[in-house]
Amino acid sequence: MTEQVSLPIHERYSLKELNTLAVESEAEYFAEPADRASLLSALAYARNHNLDVKVLGGGSNLVMREAVSGLVIRYQNAKLRLIEESSDHVLVDVGAGYSWHQFVLDALKRDWFGLENLALIPGAVGAAPVQNIGAYGVEVEQFIERVEGLYLSDSSPFSLKAEQCEFAYRESIFKQSLDGKVLITNVIFRLSKKAAVNTTYAPLEERARQEGQPSPMTLANWVMEVRQSKLPDPSVLPNAGSFFKNPIILKTHFDALKEEYPNLPGYPVDALSSEGEKSVKIAAGWLIDQLGFKGRSMGLIKVHDLQALVLVNMGGQGSDVLAAAHEIKQAVRQHYGICLEQEPRIFS
Ligand code: EPU
User: Fold this and answer.
1) Angle 248-57-165 (CA atoms, 0-180°, nearest 5)?
2) N or C: which end of the chain has fewer CB atoms below 10 A?
3) 241: Cβ below 6 Å to ligand 1?
4) Nearest to 83 by CA among 210, 188, 185
5) What average pLDDT does this structure show over 328-343?
6) How far does residue 13's CA lie from ligand 1's centre (Å)?
């Protein structure tokens, strides 16, 4: 069958620069379409050659294997379009390839509010709904109107309203039933034109008490300072952010742990468990820290000096990262009886 391929399809392409853990990885095939027509032709190419499609965003929340089979597609569309404006809100359509942090800053510049607490999160807009990025008391689901994209199987379009995205803590339908089946092309956000800052995260609340209620831009700056004080810059120390989710455990379990570890940080969770019991989210970083892992090297992988949830790659492979994570998980399970869930996904 003849085909019209309007974009380069690279063979044996290095992905080392395209993952923030900076592990060596080679894609069997790689394409970087920047518009819908070339995206459609890349998808058609994969179908015609029986290649699995692997969707890559900013590469900041995954562990790459050394070899990635099939066609890796990195959709570069970085357009921003205002689609509705009223006196109190805007609806903005943002291309999946837009840098997340750039979008936060661009929204603030236009006086579109809400995303301040999510400043400086690495990655692309298209990946934000996948793990429902969250920080300092805010999750992106609060600002998503709908998510649009294409099914990989036949390039047919989908549009899911936020309620259909099954958002939860670091979770969505895109990590569950739609995992590996779709490519997100654009996300439609509903942002406020009225400034209303969220300073519920304790260190932000403390600063607001001392310096007064911040403007949204000031709050974004505070958030950037907190992040920079705790989290390593991936361009200096390669990492994938928090490597484990904060576990959600039953309140009865939390109360028992608290007897033994009075300083264990825990935050009540709104939703009840499937048995109708109260649950508490506990700080995985604290559990790991208490076990003495902070600053420790495991071969070429190091637990960050300032935040035990973050693994830093000092020249290892994806398999080294996973081995270090396994060691930490085992120690946490043995010591506290808690099973840590890995946050970054495996890309292979
Ligand atoms: N803590 C320690 N030692 C550590 C790390 C944390 O004792 O090494 C304690 C802290 O003192 C604090 C508690 O654990 O009492 C929570 O720590 P922190 O506020 O730093 O947040 P976190 O729970 O470790 C989560 C997110 C981060 C997000 C921050 C702020 C997850 C898995 N991580 O971290 O998200 O920036 O809250 O909201 O939910 C990411 O997902 O990549 C990420 C960085």
Assistant:
1) 50
2) N
3) yes
4) 188
5) 97
6) 35
- Answer positive or negative: Cα dihedral of 256, 259, 260, 262: positive
Predicted model pTM: 0.96
If DSSP codes are grouped into helix, strand and coil, which group holds residue 302?
A: strand
* Nearest one of 108, 83, 78, 110 to 95, comparing CA atoms: 78
Cα–Cα distance, 189 to 106 (Å, whole number): 13
Helix locations, the chain, DSSP H: 36-48, 100-109, 202-211, 216-230, 251-260, 284-290, 318-336
Report whether residue 231 contacts ligand 1, using a CB cutoff of 6 Å: yes
Tens-digit pLDDT profile for residues 78-112? 999 999 999 999 999 999 999 999 999 999 999 99
Give residue 271's pLDDT.
Answer: 79
pLDDT given for residue 333 in this prediction: 97
CB 126, CB 187: distance < 8 Å: yes
Instruction: Provide the pairing of β-strand 53-55 with 67-73.
Output: parallel
Check if the beta carbon of residue 306 is closer than 8 Å to that of residue 229: yes
Distance 197 CA to ligand 1 centre (A): 20
d(CA 32, CA 38): 9
Mean pLDDT of 59-83: 98
**Residue 286: both structure tokens together:** 């604290």
Here the tokens at position 198 are: 């969220």
**CA separation for the pair 112, 305 (Å, rounded):** 36
Q: Give the closest residue (by CA) to ligand 1 atom 15.
A: 265
Query: Is the CB–ligand 1 distance for residue 289 below 6 Å?
Result: yes
CA distance 265 to 292: 17
Six token digits for residue 93: 């359509």
* pLDDT at residue number 2: 44
Report residue 3's pLDDT band, with 50, 70 and 90 as the boundaries: low
* Helix, coil or strand: residue 95: strand
Return the closest-CA partner of residue 32 out of 59, 60, 66.
59
Look at residue 40 in the predicted model and tell me its pLDDT: 97
Q: Is 203 in the pocket of ligand 1 (CB under 6 A)?
A: no
Give me the amino acid identity at 152: L
